[in-house]
Amino acid sequence: MKKTMIAVLAAMLMLALCCGSALAYNGDITTSNAKAYADAAMTQLVGAIPAGTSVLVRSYDSYADVYYNGKVVYVAPSDLLNGDITGDYNATLPKGTKIYQRAVTSAKSRKLKKDVFVNVCAVSGDWALVRTTGDVTLFAFCKVSKLTNITAR
């Protein structure tokens, strides 16, 4: 069951935070220096973001679109996933909750097969960007109304 959930969330991770999303959240570059690119294809290297730097993550897909030093640059998702992209609240998503690839109900979705403990990274309107809190960091969108057992970190 746990492997199934991780597989579902891993698949959703790749498309979870698309550019069309109105959500943004803070993240830290905590691995080695992250290579910064001028383009989403990550072919035009423009510099590096030092380890430990906090950045505003505007979107996340096969690349992370971040705001750093007054401009938008693109970094590899792995440079953020090992960091602390966390919010101020922890919560539970109950079994049967739909989680989405993007913050729209027309996006691809899956129903959770069991309760999942998450960290709430960002909220915009009635949508929440959540991250799993286990050994593997995974992201998805859900309706705020589905969050239960909400506690401050």
Task: For the structure shown, list the relevant keywords.
single chain; 153 residues; mainly beta; SH3 type barrels; 5-stranded antiparallel sheet; 4-stranded antiparallel sheet; 2 helices; 13 strands; 10% helix; 43% strand; elongated; disordered N terminus
Tally of DSSP helical segments = 2
Q: Please give the alpha-carbon distance between the first and last residues.
A: 27 Å
- Name of the CATH class of the domain at 86-152: Mainly Beta
Estimated radius of gyration? 15 Å
Which structural class matches the secondary elements? Answer: mainly beta
Count of strand segments: 13
Roughly how much helix do the residues carry, as a percent range? 10-25%
Strand arrangement, largest sheet? 12-11-10-7-13
CATH architecture of the domain at 86-152: Roll
Q: Could you please say which CATH topology of the domain at 86-152 applies here?
A: SH3 type barrels
| CA-based shape | elongated
Helix-strand pattern: HEEEEEEHEEEEEEE
